[in-house]
Structure to design on (269 residues):
């Protein structure tokens, strides 16, 4: 298997194109085998997360961003839902509340970043504050540039204080989103996933792609890299993200804390 992070790392001149969303560079061509591989990778991640939690030294933040239906929830279930939950948190960010809006846009984000020993998954994130806000002109270009600068500083601060950051853009095509929205409409058991605004936001597709390009280009850094994950295939999406997270954890050279010599003579009566 090639170095997945190098393969999927965002380009400095990123162009978000629909045709790239259907790519499956990691697929074996056998869907069942790929699903099994995701499970195998998740077990390896779980083993390393157990050491991360026990070692209580590193902090890991995984950011999942993407258009509606791109698979953020599916990734949380399909990859992170398979690992030991000890030391793992998933944080879904919705529209800010009034108390949150009365503070700086990063205030609610900072409260949820990982503590030592934790792996935290952001389902949406601080990037919403330079995406939907800019698409709808709730902030102007100057404020957007200021916020992007704040994000760069914020992520650099997290990195310098021990947080390992992984940012994944789940890239789906407009055609695939249409199919997934239609599936939700057709299935009453999936109506809970559908919001009327999802259909309204789709009308701004091109604007969102432009803002994703701007945000990713402006905030990609070696200490906070962006990975562009082709996500028209749910199985390939999970395969890619599982590989990215596993490679990241392997780089930490994790090890259980040293044995306590004082325990050598302990006896349990």
């Amino acid at each position: 298997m090639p170095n997945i992070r190098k393969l999927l790392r965002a380009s400095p001149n990123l162009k978000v194109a629909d045709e790239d969303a259907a790519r499956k560079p990691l697929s074996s061509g056998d869907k069942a085998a790929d699903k099994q591989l995701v499970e195998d990778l998740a077990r390896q991640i779980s083993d390393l997360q157990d050491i991360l939690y026990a070692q209580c030294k590193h902090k890991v933040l995984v950011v999942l961003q993407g258009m509606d239906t791109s698979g953020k929830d599916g990734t949380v279930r399909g990859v992170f839902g398979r690992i030991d939950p000890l030391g793992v948190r998933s944080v879904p960010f919705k529209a800010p509340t009034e108390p949150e809006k009365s503070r700086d846009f990063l205030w609610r984000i900072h409260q949820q970043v990982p503590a030592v020993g934790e792996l935290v998954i952001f389902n949406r994130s601080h990037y919403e504050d330079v995406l939907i806000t800019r698409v709808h002109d709730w902030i102007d270009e100057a404020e957007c540039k200021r916020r992007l600068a704040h994000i760069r500083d914020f992520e650099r601060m997290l990195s310098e204080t021990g947080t390992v950051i992984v940012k994944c853009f789940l890239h789906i095509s407009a055609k695939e989103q249409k199919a997934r929205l239609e599936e939700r409409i057709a299935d009453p058991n999936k109506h809970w996933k559908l919001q009327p605004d999802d259909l309204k936001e789709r009308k701004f597709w091109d604007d969102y792609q432009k803002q994703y390009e701007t945000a990713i280009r402006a905030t990609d850094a070696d200490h906070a890299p962006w990975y562009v994950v082709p996500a028209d295939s749910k199985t390939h999406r999970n395969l890619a993200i599982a590989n990215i997270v596993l490679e990241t954890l392997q780089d930490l050279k994790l090890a259980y804390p040293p044995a306590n010599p004082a325990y050598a003579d302990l006896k349990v009566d």
In short: The longest strand covers residues 163-171.
